[in-house]
Each structure stands twice: as C-alpha cells, then as structure tokens.
C-alpha cells in the first residue's frame, strides 16, 4: 500500500500519462487498504485473515466520449498500458452530453481540513485475539446464552488519493478498529440470536470488548419466548440501531441520479415540509474521527456540513457533476467514487438531530404497539415510497415493554412515515448514520 504522498503522486502521474495518450481530460483515483481480522468461536481460534490490496482507477474524456478502467498492477508498464487502453475505449464510446469533470473553479485549493481520521497505533494479531476472546467470553457468561456464532476483532488502514487533469491532486488516510459478537440463547426450536458490534477510527474510542460481548448476550436472552401480535395499525418505536435505515432511504431518494431519472418518491418534494416541524437532518463530512469523514469528495470538491432537512423541509438534492448538468444545478460536494466508473452521490456522516422527549416519554401513551430492534429484508420501493419489512423487537403495552416479538411485518409509505416521525432526545454518534429513538404512528403490522 502506498503512503499518502505516494498515492497523490501516483495518481498525478497517471493523469499525465493519460493526457499524453490523447485524453482531453481525465481523473484518477487510488485506493489502498491493509486489514487484519481475528475470529474466535467457543474459545478457540477460528480464523486469522490478513488482506492487503490496492487499485487505481482512470476515467478519461475524449470530447464528450468517456471510458473508465482500473488496475491492481501499479507498475510503470501497467499504468502506461492502462492509459492507452482507456483512451482507445473512450474513442469508441457513445457521446454523453453531461459527461465531464467537476467545474475547475469549485476544486479544493486551500489546505485540507484536519479530521483526525488516522490512528497509527500498531495492533498485533495477539491483541485482536484477546479482544475477540474477551467479547465472546462476556457474551457467553450471560445467563441463558447457550451457543456462540463467534466474536471478531479487526484493524485496518486505508489510503485514498485523487488527481484530475485540471490541477487537483490530494490524498488522505484513515484507520478503523472494530469488535463484534454474535450469540444464541435458548434451546431447540426456541433459540434466538442477537449481536453487538462497534467500530471506531481510533482504538481509544472503541467500546471495551467485554461491554460489546455483554450487550450481545443480553440482547439474545431478551428475545427468548417471543409472543404473537394481533394485526392492525399501531405505533412503532424504532431503536437507533435500526432507525438509521430510514435516513438511508431518504438519502437514496435525494441523489441527483434518482431525481434526473425521475425514480424517486420525493421527486416533487423539494422545498416542501416532508417531516414534522422541528425535525432536522444533517450531513457532516467534517466531523473529527467520523466514520465517513473526508476532506474532499470524489471529484475533488470541498466538503461541508449540509442541512438536508431543516425544520422538516427538504432543502436540496445530493448532486455530483453529471447529474448536476442534467438538472441545471451545481455539484454539492457529495460525489462518491469506486475504483472504476463515474462518480455517484451520497451522504457521509448523516444524523437526525435529537428531539425533546426521552424514549420513555415517547412511548408513555402507547396502549398497544411495537418496539423494533431488528429489521429483515429490503422491501422498500424507491419510486413509490412503499415500505414493508420483516421485524422483531418487543411488545409495548400501556407505555411499557411487555415481552419479545418475532417474525412480524411492518408496512407503510415513507411519505407518511416521515410526516409522522417523532425523534427522542437520545442521539449518540455511534454509526456512520445516526438517529435517536424514533416513533412513527399509524404503521400497519401483520402478525398472528
């Protein structure tokens, strides 16, 4: 894997080669990663995995024709061949009126923000083994846990570099540390499983392995002896670990590509109130140590905090250059990139601002409802907003948790769900997308 400076220089060198090969414009992205993961099960070492990989992707333009290609071979000969091949491919491609690099005047020119994304602490395989074992031991020590699906610990380092033919060249690095545990409680046909995990940029920010394992065990035991629910409309409370998926549906519906193709259930909602008054959703790529923080986007544009929902109102689309040209809009700094192909658009560190009520107060007046802490399947229609997913969790009776629930289906439409959504005050920044506990009235549950 290359260093930060080497990544920037290698990307810039390939830009030069592509321009000499006949490209009118081009950009290059480099991504390198090295990771180590240890998996334990029932106290024994099950797997140790070390992986290292790197890829360089080239996108070239010849007039309005473009082509993308990538390689994991970074030798001089391979990159020279890659440049020539990409230009030849572009000359055979159809024209695209919206193709092209990001506007030059919008490129990052100032010093990159310091986001503290890289922890250079050396974590040995032995330390990872000890973390995984501690997590599993803590989970198995919970009364009622009968088996283990394993526990794991991991560490990784990554480098990303981007260079364009109109003068941008920069790179940055990041790290990741994680611990997870998954266990089974009960016996025979009454067995239930659950899990817990945590990921952080810095090892010092990682929850203790014992706490992660204990949470996994307690969650599995709490699911034993699920009861049946009667079908019908009822309030649904979403635990933060699953409620964040609702913001994922929001983000997917407001990308420039979805709007340009007219495949979004929010197509006509720009500038309208789609959540209740007081609800705010923010995307912040500049959060120090954020899991998806980045100093520039996939096209070399500056990233900035964006209020996607302000006081319930949808403020704008997430636009990269190509969809921006289709829509007559400037790119918003939300471009995302893989090793090959054109950029897309997406969020970084996305969160819903906390509300005023505690989770207990949020459910206090619920006579009969469900608290959901697991969602199953992907039954969401991005065109219509229709929503139907399998769910598990707990029955709520007279404002109190009354017992575990499994294998039910909750359904609604995202337009109605967003409008009815109420956030609690328990927001914690734990994942890449974070929400507090959420309440949505009027959803339909299919149970017994």
Question: What can you tell me about this protein's structure?
Answer:
- The protein is α+β, with helices and mostly antiparallel strands.
- The strands form 4 sheets. It has a 6-stranded antiparallel β-sheet.
- Strand 4 and strand 5 form a beta hairpin.
- It is globular.
- The termini are far apart.
Mean pLDDT: 95
Number of helices: 9
Secondary-structure content class: alpha+beta
- Give the neighbour order of strands across the main sheet: 3-2-1-4-5-6
| Total strand segments | 19
Rg measurement, Å: 24 Å
The level of helicity is 10-25%
Q: What is the rounded distance between the termini?
A: 54 Å
Q: Estimate the strand proportion.
A: 35-45%
Q: Give the SSE string.
A: HEEEHHEEEHEHHEEEHEEEHEEEHEEE
Low-confidence stretches: none
Shape: globular
């Amino acid at each position: 894997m290359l260093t930060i400076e080497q990544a920037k220089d290698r990307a810039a060198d390939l830009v030069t080669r592509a321009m000499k090969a006949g490209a009118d414009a081009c950009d290059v992205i480099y991504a390198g990663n090295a990771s180590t993961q240890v998996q334990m099960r029932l106290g024994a070492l099950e797997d140790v995995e070390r992986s290292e990989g790197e890829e360089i992707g080239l996108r070239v333009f010849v007039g309005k024709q473009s082509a993308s290609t990538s390689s994991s071979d970074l030798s001089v000969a391979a990159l020279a061949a890659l440049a020539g091949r990409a230009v030849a491919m572009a000359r055979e491609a159809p024209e695209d009126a919206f193709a092209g690099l990001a506007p030059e005047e919008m490129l990052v020119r100032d010093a990159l923000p310091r986001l503290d994304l890289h922890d250079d602490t050396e974590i040995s395989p032995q330390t990872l083994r000890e973390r995984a074992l501690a997590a599993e031991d803590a989970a198995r020590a919970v009364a009622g846990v009968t088996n283990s699906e394993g526990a794991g610990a991991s560490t990784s380092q990554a480098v990303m570099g981007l260079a364009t033919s109109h003068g941008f060249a920069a790179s940055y690095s990041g790290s990741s540390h994680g611990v997870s545990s998954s266990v089974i409680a009960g016996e025979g046909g009454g067995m239930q499983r659950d899990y817990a995990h945590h990921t952080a940029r810095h090892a010092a920010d990682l929850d203790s392995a014992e706490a992660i394992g204990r949470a996994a065990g307690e969650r599995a035991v709490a699911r034993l002896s699920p009861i049946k629910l009667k079908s019908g409309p009822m309030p649904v409370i979403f635990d933060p670990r699953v409620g964040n998926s609702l913001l994922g549906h929001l983000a997917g519906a407001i990308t420039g590509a979805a709007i340009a193709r007219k495949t979004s259930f929010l197509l006509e909602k720009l500038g309208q109130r789609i959540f209740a008054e007081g609800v705010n959703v923010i995307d912040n790529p500049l959060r120090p140590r954020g899991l998806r923080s980045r100093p520039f986007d996939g096209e070399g544009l500056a990233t900035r905090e964006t209020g996607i929902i302000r006081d319930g109102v949808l403020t704008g689309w997430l636009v990269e250059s190509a969809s921006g040209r289709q829509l007559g809009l400037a790119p918003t700094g939300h471009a995302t990139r893989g090793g090959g192909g054109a950029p897309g658009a997406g969020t970084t560190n996305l969160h819903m601002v906390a509300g005023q009520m505690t989770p207990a107060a949020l459910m206090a007046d619920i006579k009969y409802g469900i608290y959901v802490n697991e969602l199953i399947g992907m039954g969401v229609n991005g065109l219509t907003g229709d929503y139907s997913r399998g769910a598990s969790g707990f029955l709520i009776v007279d404002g109190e948790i009354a017992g575990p629930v499994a294998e039910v289906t909750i359904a609604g439409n995202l337009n109605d769900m967003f409008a009815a959504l109420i956030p609690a005050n328990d927001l914690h920044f734990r994942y890449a997308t974070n929400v507090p506990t959420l309440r949505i009235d009027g959803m339909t549950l299919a149970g017994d």
